[in-house]
């Protein structure tokens, strides 16, 4: 559910007139925190989609996301916020982002719920301005289908045997990756696709 909603938000923004004015529109990149600002500075103007905590009430779930917008302008902070003839500014991105997200008639039917300016000295020191728009949608709560758990194929099984069942100290030691004797006498590694 969350992966498809994240992809839907990315596609929605990319396909809009706003998306055509941005260098990057993608899920928040999987990079170390110390490198995020460097990446944002390289990609700006950009938008990143981030999943947040959602809510569940019976058969209805309310997934929540934020879209982080990042602007940069060589002429300074005011130009990064207000934009110019050649470069979109943060305020324009927030306005357009809210409008794009409000106008969805297909897919999840997103509803913007607020916006926030990112007041981080490190962002400003890096010459950027950033803000985010919070959005949510209502979807059916995932339910368990006994025939299909939505999981991939079961590819591998590994088990260790022959620890005394009533020796919790030895079991704890082995579970913590201490392989010194005494240790299990038998190991089994099975690939269900190939058979035992």
TrEMBL record:
- The annotated region (Disordered) lies at 165-196
Alphabetized InterPro entries for the sequence: Phage_Mu_Gp37
UniProt xrefs under Pfam families: Phage_Mu_Gp37 (PF08873)
Which spans does this entry mark as compositional bias, Polar residues?
Answer: 185-196
Biased composition annotated in UniProt, kind: Basic and acidic residues: 168-180
**Full protein name:** Phage protein Gp37
Name its species: Pseudomonas solani
